[in-house]
Design goal:
With about 160 residues, this protein is an alpha+beta fold. The chain has one domain: Jelly Rolls (Sandwich), CATH 2.60.120. About 25% of the residues lie in helices and about 40% in strands. The protein is built from two helices and eight strands. Strand 4 and strand 5 form a beta hairpin. The longest helix has 22 residues. The radius of gyration is 16 Å and the shape is globular.
């Protein structure tokens, strides 16, 4: 069921990228605004899909990365909860990776598949502070390695 919702998200993503404001007559947006609007829409759609599957959304955000850069987010995870962490690569991102570390910087899990929609499931055996690292690993061919690219992420649990 969740795989089907991911497929629906990809279809929705392609529609939003082509026409993010829903009208061919709308005022044009700058590339940055359009990319942010697209990511925010993707976060909302995927958060709704997670909620329909029994997840509670703990955190969502978006930011900018250059090729090779990473951002780290910290949060408390609780034993007994099953966490799903999803990152969403915006226009131009070919490969985005997620790594989850415990408070001692031990790698708990990671998604290093070559895609722009990585997902990690974590079921901590203890309550503690965990770090989520999102890394921009590669871009689509022909794009500038010096530009910033938009991505988003969701942390949910049940």
């Amino acid at each position: 069921m969740f795989g089907k919702l991911i497929a629906i998200l990809f279809v929705l993503v392609s529609v939003v990228v082509v026409n993010p404001v829903g009208s061919a007559l709308a005022a044009p947006l700058s590339a940055t605004n359009r990319d942010v609007t697209t990511i925010r829409t993707q976060i909302e759609v995927l958060s709704d899909a997670l909620a329909e599957n029994g997840y509670i959304i703990q955190d969502t955000d978006w930011d900018l990365l250059e090729l090779g850069d990473s951002m780290t987010y910290n949060g408390t995870f609780y034993r007994g909860n099953d966490y799903r962490i999803i990152a969403i690569g915006g226009r131009g991102i070919a490969d985005l990776d997620i790594s989850v570390y415990d408070e001692d910087e031990n790698l708990i899990d990671e998604d290093t598949a070559t895609d722009a929609l990585p997902m990690v499931d974590v079921s901590p055996r203890w309550n503690g502070e965990f770090s989520i690292q999102v890394k921009l690993y590669s871009l689509q061919r022909g794009l500038s390695t010096y530009d910033d690219y938009v991505y988003g992420f969701i942390v949910a649990y049940k």
